From TrEMBL, chains A, B:
Its EC number is 1.1.1.42. Its cofactor is Mn(2+); Mg(2+). Keywords: Glyoxylate bypass, Magnesium, Manganese, Metal-binding, NADP, Oxidoreductase, Tricarboxylic acid cycle. It is an enzyme of class 1 (oxidoreductase). Homodimer. Belongs to the isocitrate and isopropylmalate dehydrogenases family. Residues 6-337 form the Isopropylmalate dehydrogenase-like domain. One of its GO terms (molecular function) is isocitrate dehydrogenase (NADP+) activity. The chain holds residues 1 to 341 of 491 of the full protein. This is Isocitrate dehydrogenase [NADP]. It comes from the Bacteria. Catalyzes the oxidative decarboxylation of isocitrate to 2-oxoglutarate and carbon dioxide with the concomitant reduction of NADP(+).
Length: 341, 341
């Protein structure tokens, strides 16, 4: 038997625990060779008075296993708290956020049956650097920070990804007509690095019209590389019009550590009701298995998941009377995937 | 006869001159009581060595007429040039950018037949303040600036607009989970001012999921108010999925001056070919006529324009074999609208 790979797991907040349970049950049934080490982060840690939402024990586990499967977490609103998601990405140097979005037509409703786009989002800079201040009673500011090494890293990653996966085109989205220094640098580096990938088509669009065309004709896009904030917005758009944000997983890639998660949030309004779709986190987990070299079990799970959707076994978010066969809960969906393994 | 209202007109760059010609011909044929004063701004002015793209004579005209019908203009890329669009908006204090988007189903193809959304975009602050600098060889920064008076103005405008036009709901989009001071202030002011409009439903969404739901289910939205950059992105998205960015006009509202334009750019690739759709600028012109009190001629033009589209007289961007009747050029489209007056 394969040596088990230690991974760090956080059950998160809101719907986190139930979708993590469903996901880990599927991985276990499929024989994934992982040994999860559970850490507590997010809401409970805040409530204990730790305004960072994460403690030293959790950091140690992350630094040791270097592979993190994370359910959605909640950061309290209010100026005393920095987003824990952002803290983790920055602290672990997770510079690339890879978000594949794929239509599952005809099994899951979409207006865009040919959608197959991978969003590669810069993950550490931009307005996410968290530099905000009150300048006077009525004036507040946020610093958008862009560095050349940051641009180089993400853009090289995007082209390497395209090459590795046989993708044909990389589209870069910026607002370089307004932000000539910051977005201008991102685009300049895109041109410089793109020149080393002659076999891959290159395209640049201003983010406003680029996002509009992505939302209208996503089948015209292949790999998209962009700055942190634009990537945040367009990845939700593309995942949603592919079927649902509930379907998309993401890989947060660093030089030393990697974190896998769903792209959606903790949805406290439906927490604990056994109705959430565990697919986003499961997709994250499948990317994790690929990453740690367990390709076979990853594709077994992917196929079982597809078969479940094809059989019309659907959670409430995608249930369509007449087309879906069964409206199931979170755990029943996991059971169905397990049966299809 | 009505006293003619003096307005300032700029023919702009790229497709600007031809769509302005088409638009003014329609206004003239409909008997709009305007007396246009033409100014030269944009490309030609840059080429004469004026890096602002606008001269004193143009400013004087704008300050005198206070009503500006503007075709798309081009600002050269490169760090020596500030966007002329932004310069005009800021100099004239055009704080609100109003962008109505409406489906013309079944006459114009759309996947969203019930779309009817008005985007009200803050127009002076945010990363558009144009404060960027190179901090070191490898680090560049852009300042996102938000002020309380700026938030108050745009949010009050959005609620007053909703009230005046009998709209039922105002949705506010921010990223206040990350930018707690800047976007946080916008949302706080939304709550404060919203409280004075008990008859209007209020909703707040994080921009990522908000943009995703707008792109997927636009029929669930009514009036949307948001910060400058988000507004830029989502207005292109909503206009495009309603039919085409080529259809949307916008009003840039200030306390003293007002500017009307298409939301699209100068499209140099198709300039001078008589194929551009003049509808976006015409919609801007119709909003202008409403604004200067010529409601009757505004609605005559609107109806003639709708009749033209309903008759299947379509420019190339929206031509669909089988459904459209005639594929016409820019000026022929204008002729058809004039015939329907
Ligand atoms: C929860 C939030 C901080 C996060 C982000 O903005 O990056 C989320 O929207 C995401 O896309 O992963
Ligand atoms: C041309 C550009 C400066 C402008 C903007 O970003 O505001 C345009 O995209 C718009 O939406 O009017």
């Amino acid at each position: 038997m394969l040596q088990k790979t230690p991974i760090t797991v956080a059950y998160g907040d809101g719907i986190g625990p139930e979708i993590m349970e469903a996901t880990l049950r599927i991985l276990d049934a499929a024989g994934a060779a992982i040994s999860p080490e559970v850490i507590e982060i997010g809401e409970k840690v805040y409530l204990q008075g730790n305004t960072s939402g994460i403690d030293q024990k959790a950091w140690s586990s992350l630094r040791k296993t270097k592979v993190f499967l994370k359910a959605p977490i909640t950061t309290p609103l209010g100026t005393g708290y920095k987003s824990l998601n952002v803290t983790i990405r920055k602290t672990l140097g997770l510079f690339a956020n890879v978000r594949p979005c794929l239509s599952l037509h005809p099994f899951v409703a979409t207006k865009h049956p040919k959608l197959d786009v991978v969003i590669i989002r810069e993950n550490e800079e931009d307005v996410y650097a968290g530099i905000e201040h009150q300048q006077s009673a009525d004036v507040v500011q946020c610093l958008k920070l862009i560095t050349r090494p940051g641009c180089e890293k993400i853009i090289r990653y995007a082209f390497e990804y395209a090459r590795a996966y046989g993708r044909k085109k990389v589209t870069c989205l910026t607002k370089n007509n307004i932000m000539k220094l910051t977005d201008g640098l991102f685009y300049q580096v895109f041109q410089e690095i793109g020149a080393h990938y002659p076999e891959i088509a290159k395209e640049h669009q201003i983010i406003d019209i680029g996002a509009a065309l992505l939302a209208d004709k996503p089948e015209k896009y292949d790999v998209v590389v962009t700055l942190n904030l634009y990537g945040d917005i367009i990845s939700d758009i593309v995942a949603q019009i592919a079927g649902s944000v509930g379907f998309a997983g993401s890989a947060n890639i660093g030089d030393h550590c990697t974190m896998f998660e769903a792209i959606h949030g903790s949805a406290p309004d439906i927490a604990g009701k056994n109705i959430a779709n565990p697919s986003g986190l499961l997709q994250g987990a499948i990317m994790m298995l690929m990453h740690i070299g367990q390709r076979e079990v990853a594709s077994t799970i992917q196929n079982a998941w597809l078969a479940t959707l094809e059989n019309g076994i659907h959670t409430a978010d995608i249930y369509r009377p007449g087309i879906s066969k069964l409206n199931v809960g979170t755990q029943q969906f996991a059971d169905a995937v397990i049966e299809n393994l």
